[in-house]
């Protein structure tokens, strides 16, 4: 009797499902009866869950590499001609595999977190293991009962695979989803510690110090995933932008907002013993939003270029899970409310606590607004159906109002769904974003508890002067037509000077006490207070990103149709069509245009935008963008349509000022967060 | 007889076991060799199948550790000493006050806070730190038997035997005084104290 990979895989998932319930059971009983044996068994079962998930993952990878098309998921997302690298990454290229990948990462993080903290927080560990085990059980249950990646073809087994979506056969798309998953999944660890603190009653700040680095880790990967998603959209979709407020992009942004808020507000609790309920709420909401994001991506409740498709069973399952999280988590929070009283009060609005508080409110407003606007089409549909079925009069009135005033009620997409587009998001998010940039500059200038007026003037004079100077310089160089653009440049200048001033004064104070060279003092200052100065470096990255976004206010955009030999102007450039080339390889047919970018009679670069038709999906040609990049701007060209008989080529041409500073800013942010991650020093315990 | 909990073998220093990753590498090499010997090709699927075997061995080993954990008594230390609500809260507040003082001094040095505000706030923080330290002592003195047990354990670990609160005998029989004396008020403090619990002054390094 032979065992197939499909059978082995399904059996391993079944065993993982049983094991995760056993983990929950043993840890819970161990904690209730204070039985060390059961607690230890729960911890070992947590490690065993990772081992079992690794076995299941290795089986699916083997199935991809060996071309086992008897497994539906393998047949749907790969074919024999795909390169080895894409065969491996096809593991998370579809819905079923991505859920297994999720379980693999979740069990890995659970094992690492438990191993790192079992001696530090022994009283919390059984509860942490139980919560993490419960989350494993939920996702494994989905794999087992709803989306089995090992499900075989029961009748006719196809001889060849369908292949991975060509849009996903791209380096960015290989790295972007795992990066977002890493961010999403790792947020379960702080949530489990928060719940354990509530259950055990050990709600002091020590558990937060352990999870702060996890949140920072999640935040880094979420940022990385979001930026890579933006870069992919910029280089692959050909519409000249990088962020379109797509529901799936927004799904990654939601926990990012709340995780960022937590990273700031946790400092208030550490310093002043305030905002304990708020911090726990942020941890709960951040985890909840990762599940909301998964729900939005995988249930089909929202329409998106990234979504996996409609699945009502999955929608209801995730809905029930989210409801359970809300009820249980906030129930525990209310239960422990008496132990979470604030130990201090806010003493002055001119304090860092207050700046952080406002920063938190704004981040939460961002999350609520983006979630509401993203879910609006779905909510609209539910309400419409409800009204149509039960209150036809009210439905008619609402429908008439929506048609009469489309701006107020959203727009209809080609499939007739009501959607909210980027202009709506930009209208509200632009001022909130600038307010956050302002707070990025203000926060470091004010001291904890209170700042006197005299000190305030001393602190703010430099940044305000530099901010005003930046606004004036931007008005002179780029023109004064965009108020938002000028405000953004001004705030970038203000915040930049704040950061420079902080480093300058820190280095000066250090050099007053020690004889050190400037560079030595700078490095030692940063390494000695990594969290503070690493945070300032993150803020520098934020400034650079806003600088790049400010350039968007001066964007130039044209759609033209040219024949070879013709040229047109774009800003200060001449764009010349030099001809078309048709080529093909084993995977696709390609038409490439040679587009010369000319300035003052000199050819700066010959761009090669293209359209590709994959044999596998000829009805979905892809757009290959070509860019002439400088630190000041990008000349961005994409081919929309092409007629090979006449040579007429429809081109989208853009000048995107300062856009590359966004990517530079991201690298600086990443460096800053790496410095922050290394904050904790080993505590020396007296022996 | 008390057995070490699974996964803790490394800590007791009695069993010099191979690192687990090395075992898995050996299993991988063995499986790969067997597959090639059986006619398998030197290609990616063969490597992947060997990795599946390694993952299976790893999973079985971890399942075994679950069973072993259930079958042997785990040491009581594993559950840890629950820090106790009040003591944990006070320790937490004390740590926060020390950080706040440090931060305040740095902000003062950077000119973010005036001299008058600095002196007022620092005095309040130090006063509160003294109160918290005393409260911590009170909490600890509520459990004298526990305190004695812990002191005896610490002394046993270090090879010293406790005579009084601030005197211990060394393994060689000599007497040594532990703790720190404040230069300002001559008050006795714990050996790891940074600030005097009687007057709040910083103790010399």
Q: Would you kindly provide a brief summary of this structure?
A:
With 687 residues, chain A is α+β, with helices and mostly antiparallel strands. In chain A, 63% of the residues lie in helices and 11% in strands.
What characteristics describe this protein?
heterodimer; A: 687 residues; alpha+beta; six-stranded antiparallel beta sheet; four-stranded antiparallel beta sheet; 21 helices; 12 strands; 63% helix; 11% strand; globular; disordered C terminus; B: 205 residues; mainly alpha; 3 domains; three-stranded antiparallel beta sheet; two-stranded antiparallel ribbon; 6 helices; 57% helix; 7% strand; disordered N terminus
Description:
The complex is a heterodimer of chains A (687) and B (205). Chain A is an alpha+beta fold and 687 residues long. Chain A contains 21 helices and twelve strands. In chain A, strands 4, 5, 6, 7, 8 and 9 form a six-stranded antiparallel sheet that branches. A four-stranded antiparallel sheet of chain A has the order 3-12-11-10, with no helix packed on it. In chain A, strands 1-2 form a two-stranded antiparallel sheet. The C terminus of chain A is likely disordered. Chain B is mainly alpha-helical and 205 residues long. Chain B has three domains: 43 residues; 68 residues; 46 residues, no CATH class. Helix content of chain B is 57%, strand content 7%. In chain B, strands 1-2-3 form a three-stranded antiparallel sheet, covered by helices on one side. A two-stranded antiparallel sheet of chain B has the order 4-5. In chain B, strand 1 and strand 2 form a beta hairpin. The longest helix of chain B is centred in the N-terminal third of the chain and has 28 residues. The radius of gyration of chain B is 28 Å and the shape is elongated. Chain B starts with 8 loop residues before the first helix and ends in a 16-residue tail after the last strand. The N terminus of chain B is likely disordered.
């Amino acid at each position: 009797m032979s065992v197939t990979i499909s059978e082995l895989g399904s059996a391993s998932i079944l065993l993982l499902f049983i094991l995760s319930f056993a983990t929950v059971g043993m840890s819970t009983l161990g904690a209730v009866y204070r039985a060390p044996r059961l607690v230890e068994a729960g911890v070992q079962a947590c490690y065993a869950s990772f081992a079992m998930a690794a076995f299941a993952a290795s089986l699916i990878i083997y199935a991809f590499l060996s071309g086992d098309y008897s497994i539906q998921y393998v047949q749907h997302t790969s074919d024999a001609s795909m390169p080895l690298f894409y065969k491996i990454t096809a593991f998370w290229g579809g819905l079923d595999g991505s859920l297994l990948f999720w379980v693999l990462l979740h069990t890995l993080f659970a094992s690492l977190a438990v191993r790192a903290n079992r001696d530090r927080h022994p009283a919390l560990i059984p509860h942490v293991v139980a919560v993490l085990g419960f989350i494993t059980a939920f996702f494994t249950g989905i794999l087992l009962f709803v989306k089995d990646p090992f499900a075989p073809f029961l009748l006719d087994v196809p001889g060849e695979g369908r292949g991975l979506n060509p849009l996903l056969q791209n380096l960015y798309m290989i790295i972007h989803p795992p990066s977002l998953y890493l961010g999403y999944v790792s947020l379960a660890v702080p949530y489990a510690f928060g719940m354990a603190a509530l259950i055990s009653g050990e709600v002091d700040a020590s558990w937060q110090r352990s999870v702060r680095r996890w949140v920072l880790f999640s935040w880094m990967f979420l940022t990385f995933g979001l930026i890579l998603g933006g870069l992919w959209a910029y280089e692959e979709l050909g519409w000249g932008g990088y962020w379109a407020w797509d529901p799936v992009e927004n799904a990654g942004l939601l926990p990012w907002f709340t995780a960022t808020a937590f990273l700031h507000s946790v400092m208030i609790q550490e310093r002043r013993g305030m905002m304990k309920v708020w911090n726990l709420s942020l941890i709960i909401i951040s985890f909840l939003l990762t599940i909301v994001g998964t729900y939005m991506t995988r249930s089909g409740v929202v329409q998106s270029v990234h979504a996996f498709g409609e699945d009502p069973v999955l929608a209801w399952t995730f809905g029930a899970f989210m409801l359970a999280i809300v009820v249980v988590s906030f129930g525990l929070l209310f239960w422990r409310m008496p132990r979470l009283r604030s130990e201090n009060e806010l003493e002055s609005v001119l304090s860092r606590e207050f700046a952080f508080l406002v920063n938190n409110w704004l981040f939460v407003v961002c999350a609520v607004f983006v979630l509401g606007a993203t879910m609006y089409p779905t909510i609209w549909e539910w309400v419409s159906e409800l009204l149509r079925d039960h209150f036809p009069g009210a439905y008619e009135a609402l429908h008439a109002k929506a048609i009469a005033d489309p701006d107020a009620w959203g727009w209809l997409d080609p499939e007739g769904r009501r959607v909210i587009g980027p202009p709506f998001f930009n209208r509200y998010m632009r001022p909130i974003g600038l307010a956050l940039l302002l707070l990025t500059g203000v926060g470091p200038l004010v001291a904890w508890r209170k700042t006197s007026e005299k000190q305030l003037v001393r602190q703010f004079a430099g940044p305000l002067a530099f901010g005003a100077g930046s606004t004036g310089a931007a008005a002179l160089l780029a023109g004064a037509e965009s108020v938002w653009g000028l405000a953004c440049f001004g705030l970038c200048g203000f915040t930049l000077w704040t950061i420079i001033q902080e480093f300058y004064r820190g280095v000066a104070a250090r050099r007053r006490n020690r004889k050190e060279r400037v560079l030595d003092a700078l490095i030692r200052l940063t390494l000695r207070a990594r969290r503070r100065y690493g945070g300032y470096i993150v803020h520098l990255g934020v400034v650079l990103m806003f600088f790049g976004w400010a350039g968007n206010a001066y964007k130039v955009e044209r759609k033209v149709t040219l024949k070879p030999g013709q040229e047109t102007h774009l800003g200060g450039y001449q764009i010349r069509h030099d001809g078309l080339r048709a080529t093909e390889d084993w995977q696709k047919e390609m038409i490439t245009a040679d587009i010369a970018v000319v300035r003052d009679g000199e050819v700066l670069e010959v761009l090669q935008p293209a359209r590709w038709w994959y044999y596998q999906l000829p009805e979905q040609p892809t757009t290959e963008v070509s860019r002439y990049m400088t630190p000041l701007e990008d000349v961005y060209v994409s081919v929309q349509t092409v007629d090979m008989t006449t040579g007429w080529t429809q081109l989208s041409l853009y000048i995107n000022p300062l856009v590359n500073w966004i990517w530079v800013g991201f690298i600086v942010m990443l460096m800053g967060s790496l410095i922050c991650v290394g904050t904790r020093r080993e505590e020396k315990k007296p022996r | 007889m008390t057995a070490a909990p699974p996964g803790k073998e490394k800590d007791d220093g009695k069993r010099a076991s191979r690192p687990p990753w090395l075992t898995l590498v050996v299993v991988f090499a063995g499986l790969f060799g067997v597959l090639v010997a059986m006619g398998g090709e030197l290609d990616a699927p063969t490597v992947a199948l060997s990795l599946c075997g390694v993952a299976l061995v790893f999973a079985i080993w971890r399942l075994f550790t679950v069973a072993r954990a259930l079958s042997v008594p785990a040491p009581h230390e594993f559950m840890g000493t629950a820090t106790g609500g009040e003591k944990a809260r006070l320790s937490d507040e004390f740590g926060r006050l020390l950080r706040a003082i440090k931060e305040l001094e740095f902000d003062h040095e950077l000119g973010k806070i005036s001299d008058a505000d600095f002196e007022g706030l620092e005095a309040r923080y130090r006063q509160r730190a003294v109160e918290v330290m005393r409260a911590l002592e009170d909490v600890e003195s509520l459990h004298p038997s526990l305190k004695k047990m812990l002191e005896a354990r610490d002394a046993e670990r270090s090879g010293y035997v406790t005579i009084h609160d601030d005197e211990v005998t060394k393994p060689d029989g000599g007497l040594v005084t532990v703790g720190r004396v404040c230069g300002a008020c001559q008050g006795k403090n714990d050996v790891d104290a940074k600030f005097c619990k009687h007057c709040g002054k910083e103790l010399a390094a």
